[in-house]
Design brief:
By secondary structure, the protein is mainly β. Helices cover about 0% and strands about 50% of the residues. The strands form two sheets. Strands 2, 4, 5, 6, 9, 10 and 11 form a seven-stranded mixed beta sheet that branches. A four-stranded antiparallel beta sheet has the order 1-3-8-7, with no helix packed on it. A hairpin with a 6-residue loop joins strand 4 and strand 5. The chain is globular, with a radius of gyration of 13 Å. The protein starts with a strand and ends with a strand. The mean pLDDT is about 95.
Amino acid sequence: QVQLVESGGGLVQAGGSLRLSCAAFGRTLSSYGMGWFRQAPGKEREFVAAIYWIGSSTYDADSVIGRFTISSDNAKNMVYLQMNSLKPEDTAVSCCAAGYGRPRFLPTEYAYRGQGPQVTVSS
């Protein structure tokens, strides 16, 4: 079993930055793919970014390219999402997810998901 605990959400003005952190407990995440997803009010959960523990390959949704950066600290079993130039449309509940093998782009394809911090961007 893998337990994921996120932190770092909050309220920020448009143009500001936040960094989300995801700590994984229960298993070393070598050979795992890690993803960040978000769900805005009234919308489906959507893919934001993913990283593959092996080789640190990263994948970003078109809507966040150039603004968000996913990274990992293998020694600490942590994954981060640095969010810059935030927009009101980035307001959502975010969560990280973990699954064995290469990252996927659908939340249902991950075996483990966290509860997720709220990110609110005011205009």
